[in-house]
Design brief:
heterodimer; A: mainly beta; 7-stranded mixed beta sheet; about 0% helix; globular; B: 6-stranded mixed beta sheet; 5-stranded antiparallel beta sheet
Chain lengths: ~110, ~110
Amino acid sequence: DSGVTQTPKHLITATGQRVTLRCSPRSGDLSVYWYQQSLDQGLQFLIQYYNGEERAKGNILERFSAQQFPDLHSELNLSSLELGDSALYFCASGESGANVLTFGAGSRLTVL
Amino acid sequence: GQNIDQPTEMTATEGAIVQINCTYQTSGFNGLFWYQQHAGEAPTFLSYNVLDGLEEKGRFSSFLSRSKGYSYLLLKELQMKDSASYLCAVRDHQAGTALIFGKGTTLSVSS
């Protein structure tokens, strides 16, 4: 157990729908990072939050959004889902100024 | 932006030594990382280099040359459980503290 908790583990939904993925970082970590991993693209950085504020943006689509709450948990919202959004979504957390990111077990999204 | 290249696949036998290379191009280099990922599981941290040279940690070592934009991960005394994907990642000032990953090298270890 890495200490980073992601729910749900698996999610199956239909095109056009909206889903929310949740992440609780390790105790004491202020930063949360979201990544998408598909077979052909590898691990793609989506967005980072630090202590409730957006800190950095990667290849995040406009249909996707995220936020980090006062208790430091984060949610990734995916809307108008397409078949190509099927992927593993990982959350990682890190301490302020630390180098190592610790990953959660991931949420596997299947869009039918 | 960033560009990270590593071989797609490698094979090796138990007990052998394997070297996985990674080349990168980035404008604001701030560290290179190696992660291991078993199929369907979370990536786990293996090593970190920010200065040139070799970092050794048990059976795993990682090397960095910043001037050449080059790193390698060396795995010694290979075991079957080392069959996994090995992800090279860079930290770039432009992406804050996020890691930018290559597509990974899938290593298959056979007996």
